[in-house]
Write a structure and sequence with these properties.
Layout (H helix, E strand, L loop, with lengths): L2 E5 L3 H14 L6 H9 L6 E7 L2 E9 L2 E6 L4 H15 L5 E5 L3 H9 L2 E3 L6 E8 L12 E4 L5 H11 L25 H8 L9 E5 L5 E10 L4 E9 L8 H15 L4 E4 L9 H8 L3 E11 L7
Parallel strand pairs: 4-5, 11-12
Antiparallel strand pairs: 1-2, 2-3, 3-4, 5-13, 6-13, 7-12, 7-13, 8-9, 9-10, 10-11
Helix pairs in contact: 1-2, 3-4
Amino acid sequence: MSLSIRPWAGPADTVDMARLASRLWPHGPHPGGLGWSVAIGQFARRAAVARDGEQVVGWAGTSPGEVVVQADPRHPAAADLLLHWAVDAEGSGTPALVVWDGDRSMAHAATAAGFVADTSARGTVVGMMRRAAHEDPGLPPGYRVRPTEPGEHAARVDAHRAAWRPIDLPWAPAFRPDATADQTSRFTLAHYIAVRHTWLYDGRLDLVVEAPDGTLAASCLGWWDPATLVAEIEPLGVVPPHRHMGLAGALCLAVSGTVAEWGGRALFINTGPRPDYPAPAAAYARVGFQVVPRGRWHHRRAAVDRA
């Protein structure tokens, strides 16, 4: 074995990382959401990939106070190597790490590196899933779901930005953050173009809801992975004046119908019930998504001498 590690070097590495995520699903992120986060610059402050010869066998990323690692269990040394790299790169003595259910090699590496599982309820990492099937989306009169059309990329970006303006997000009243009116979404046309060049992007699942006046009321991306027969929805947003009309559920059911037509078995959304931000999970539950446990947070108690 010629195992080596090097810094993330661009889109080709992202494709290899996503392909590995697909092979290891559900023991890790969905490859669609992984690609989305890298394309919009939200994946990690620093990232690296591990290779055995020419094959990518793992990857890692760091953000303040957190590290993320995925390694092929057939290469257990990659988990140890990447986790040590991530802890060193993060620079904190007590970072957090998700260990996915069923990932024994990462669980072993985490224990060896001084990580301890958070056994409390808040230590559980969850997602939401539903079966892929044809169902009536039940749109309000005059609204329609359709793919994004050529020539409306700017409008598509504007709809996303309006849906994700921090001050307008549907926070629970007791948890509303100190957002200001001048804060906006970070999503730009350049981000959208990068997303459209991401592995697994399919324009047929780049959906919008058109309002009766022709403006865009909501949008979502479905990431169909034919290898796993599971699609992820990431992201989904509704423009504030059009909320509480069932548009989020309608977009989910539109993706569900298309995925079912393509032979898919399930839809996944990387979220769950949150007391500070309850609206998304509640909307997804209304159209059949159920909460599923996926892993557990681990916290590093102290720096460990690798020797």
